[in-house]
């Protein structure tokens, strides 16, 4: 049924104008479709991310979207230079150092929030 359907990650935001500045200006995503407050971005390898205004924006306390990257450290450095603040975690199962969790063979991952408080991640696997 849906095994061959194209899926689009969808994130609720409080302020669509502020979200567009962040997703386009800070993250460098390019809009591929805009309608009725909904903006869909091309993310690579045929994947997409859509943002839309909602009163429920930022209420998810889990990762909403993970972007696969080749080098987490360089991405973190570049995003920090643009003002992005990374989450720090220190739990028995997860510890970040300067915003990056190193999972050894499982790769590296870093989490940050968009202006609405949605948790986004960048992950590097297969080192």
Strand adjacency order, main sheet: 1-4-3-2
**What is the number of independent domains?**
1
Beta-strand percentage range: 35-45%
Low-confidence stretches: none
Compute the CA-based radius of gyration. 15 Å
Percent of residues in helices: 10-25%
Main pleated-sheet profile:
4 strands, mixed
CATH architecture tag? Roll
Shape: globular
Structural category: alpha/beta
At the first level of CATH, what is the class?
Answer: Alpha Beta
> How many strands in all?
8
Q: What's the overall average pLDDT, rounded? A: 92
What is the fourth-level CATH superfamily?
A: 2,3-Dihydroxybiphenyl 1,2-Dioxygenase, domain 1
CATH fold type: 2,3-Dihydroxybiphenyl 1,2-Dioxygenase, domain 1
Structural notes for this entry:
The chain has about 130 residues and is of the alpha/beta class. It has one domain: 2,3-Dihydroxybiphenyl 1,2-Dioxygenase, domain 1 (Roll). Helix content is about 15%, strand content about 35%. It contains 2 helices and 8 strands; from the N terminus they run E-H-E-E-E-E-H-E-E-E. It has helices at about 15-25, 70-80; strands at about 10-15, 30-35, 40-45, 45-55, 65-70, 100, 110-115, 120-125. Strands 1-4-3-2 form a 4-stranded mixed beta sheet, with helices on one face. A hairpin with a 5-residue loop joins strand 7 (about 110-115) and strand 8. The longest helix has 11 residues, at about 15-25. The protein is globular. The model has no long low-confidence stretch (mean pLDDT about 90).
């Amino acid at each position: 049924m849906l095994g061959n359907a194209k899926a689009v990650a969808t994130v609720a935001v409080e302020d669509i104008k502020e979200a567009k500045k962040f997703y386009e200006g800070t993250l460098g995503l390019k809009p591929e479709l805009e309608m009725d407050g909904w903006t869909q971005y091309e993310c690579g390898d045929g994947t997409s991310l859509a943002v839309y205004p909602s009163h429920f924006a930022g209420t998810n306390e889990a990762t909403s979207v993970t972007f696969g990257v080749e080098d987490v450290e360089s991405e973190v450095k570049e995003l920090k230079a643009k003002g992005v603040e990374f989450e720090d975690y220190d739990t028995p199962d997860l510890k970040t150092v300067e915003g990056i969790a190193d999972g050894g063979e499982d790769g590296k991952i870093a989490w940050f929030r968009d202006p609405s408080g949605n948790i986004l991640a960048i992950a590097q696997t297969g080192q």
